[in-house]
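S1.2 Input.
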Amino acid sequence: MSLAAELAALPSSALAARMSRLSWSDFGLDLAAQLPRSSWGSRKLYCDRHCEIGLFFLPRGERIPLHDHPHIHVWMRVLCGQLRATSFTWQGPPFARRSGDAVLDADSPVWAVLPEQDNLHELTAVDDVAFLDVLRPPYIDGRVCTYYDAAPAHDDLWRMSARR
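S1.3 Output.
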């Protein structure tokens, strides 16, 4: 069984513990060969109707813009490099509250994004970085990722505007 299929078969309650034991060397890839010249790249490792697993690669200074994962649980494990994760939690669209700002690396715990918490987030590479994402369920049945712009609104709320 492949590593990705093993992760896909695990119950959600065991996933973070298994992911925390993974290292970049488990994937047998050369980071420099995976990094795009700009923006970000990905490699899908597994997908079925219950789970999607992928590796993401960002060169230092690049980012994945503010986006959501509607009705999806996401487990993310940084495998090498450092990644700044800035997250927001919906307070009732179009408003969200900033709920996290952390720099994650291979020594950090698995970051869990829940449908109701941290579901909006922006990821910025502090160093060249590779991370693993496990999504349950995957992007099927009409689910789409939406990208947003955030502007301060009032109190500690931010107004989210979907990009067109």
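S1.4 Remarks. DSSP finds three helices and eleven strands in the chain.
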